[in-house]
Amino acid sequence: MAITRSLGVSAPRWSTRAGAGFAQLFAMAWRVVTTRRDLAEMDDRMLQDLGISRAQAQFEVSRPVWKLFS
Asked: Which of 11, 19, 33, 61 is most buried, most CB within 10 Å of its CB?
């Protein structure tokens, strides 16, 4: 951005939207990572309250974050 300002050219409009989109994707990925970490730490009683088995929890915890976007 500093280069475009020194040349007297404004940054394209899409760049701010792309930055906001990236921030939203990063926030969503971070939320998934932290909730999966919490899920991994739950005991069987807590998992039963959620209605999922230990195997289902382990499957979800083991999934890579980037699988959300495909």
From this structure: 61
Residue 13, CA distances (Å) to 20, 44, 45, 48, 50 in order: 12, 50, 50, 48, 44
> Does residue 32 fall inside a structural domain?
yes
Domain-located, residue 3: no
Position 45 in a domain: yes
70 residues of the chain, pLDDT tens digit each = 444 444 555 555 555 666 778 888 889 999 999 999 999 999 999 999 999 999 999 999 999 988 876 6
Other CB atoms within 10 A of residue 57 CB: 19
Question: Domain limits at 67?
Answer: 22-70
Could you tell me the CA-to-CA distances from 44 to 6, 30, 60, 64 in Å, in that order? 60, 25, 15, 23
| 68 close to 44: Cβ distance less than 8 angstroms | no
